[in-house]
Design brief:
- With 215 residues, the protein is an all-alpha fold.
- The protein has a single domain, classed as Urease accessory protein UreF, CATH 1.10.4190.
- Helix 3 runs parallel beside helix 9.
- The protein is globular.
- 42% of the residues are buried.
Length: 215
C-alpha cells in the first residue's frame, strides 16, 4: 500500500532533520582541516568546496548509492560493501558507519524497520524503500541535509555568519536539484569520484591537533 505524500514528506523531514539522533553535527567530513589550513576562509571558498564535494566527490557517490538502494538495484548487503570500499580514508569509513548504525537503531526502535549494520546512505535507502518513499524525494533531501551540515561546520569555525551560510545553501540549490536528478537515474557504472583534496583533508584530519569534530 502506498504512503500518502504528506506523510512521506514529513517522514523525510524527520529523518534528515539536524535533531535526528545520528550525531551528524559531530562530523565535518574533513572540512575542519580545510578551514584550519586556509583552504576555506569565507562564504565563497565554502561554496566552492561543497560544490566540488557534491559534483565530483562523496556527495555524488553517496547520493547514487542511496538511489540504488531505494530502487533495489542490488541487495543492501552488496551495496553496503561497495559503499565501504569507496571510502577514501579511515575517518570517512567511521563517519558513514557510525551514522548508519545510529540511524539503523532509531529506525528499528521507532519505525520497526530493519536496516542495522549499514552505512548511512544504504540505511537511509533501505528505510525509504520500506516506507515506499520515492527516490526523487529522498535523494535531494539527503543532499540538502549533507550540504547544510557542512555549512554549519563553517558557521562555527570560519566563522561564516548564519545569514551568509543560508546564502551559500540557497546558491547550492540548483546543483542539488541537478545532482539529485542524475543520481536518481544512475546505475553502478556512474559511480566515480575525483576530489583528491577533500580525500586528503579527511586523512590529515585524523591526526589534527587541536580539533573539534570527529572527522
Amino acid at each position: 500500500m502506498s504512503t500518502p505524500i504528506n506523510d512521506q514528506i514529513l517522514t523525510v523531514m524527520q529523518w534528515l532533520s539536524p535533531a535526528f539522533p545520528i550525531g551528524s553535527f559531530a562530523y565535518s567530513h574533513g572540512l575542519e582541516w580545510a578551514i584550519s589550513t586556509g583552504c576555506v576562509i569565507d562564504a565563497a571558498t565554502l561554496e566552492s568546496w561543497i560544490t566540488d564535494v557534491l559534483e565530483y566527490g562523496s556527495g555524488r557517490t553517496d547520493a547514487i548509492i542511496l538511489a540504488l538502494a531505494v530502487r533495489g538495484v542490488l541487495p543492501f548487503d552488496k551495496l553496503n560493501a561497495m559503499s565501504l570500499a569507496l571510502c577514501a580514508s579511515q575517518e570517512r569509513l567511521s563517519e558513514t558507519q557510525a551514522q548508519g548504525e545510529a540511524m539503523g537503531k532509531v529506525m528499528r526502535d521507532v519505525w520497526k524497520i530493519g536496516c542495522e549494520e549499514m552505512v548511512l546512505p544504504v540505511a537511509l535507502g533501505a528505510a525509504a524503500a520500506h516506507r515506499s518513499i520515492p527516490v526523487d524525494l529522498i535523494v535531494p533531501a539527503y543532499l540538502h541535509a549533507f550540504s547544510s551540515n557542512l555549512i554549519s561546520v563553517a558557521v562555527r569555525l570560519v566563522p561564516v555568519g548564519q545569514t551568509q551560510g543560508q546564502r551559500v545553501l540557497l546558491a547550492l540549490h540548483p546543483l542539488i536539484d541537478a545532482l539529485a536528478q542524475v543520481a536518481s537515474n544512475a546505475d553502478l557504472d556512474d559511480l566515480t569520484s575525483c576530489t583528491f583534496l577533500s580525500d586528503v583533508a579527511s586523512m590529515r584530519h585524523e591526526t589534527q591537533i587541536p580539533r573539534i569534530f570527529k572527522t
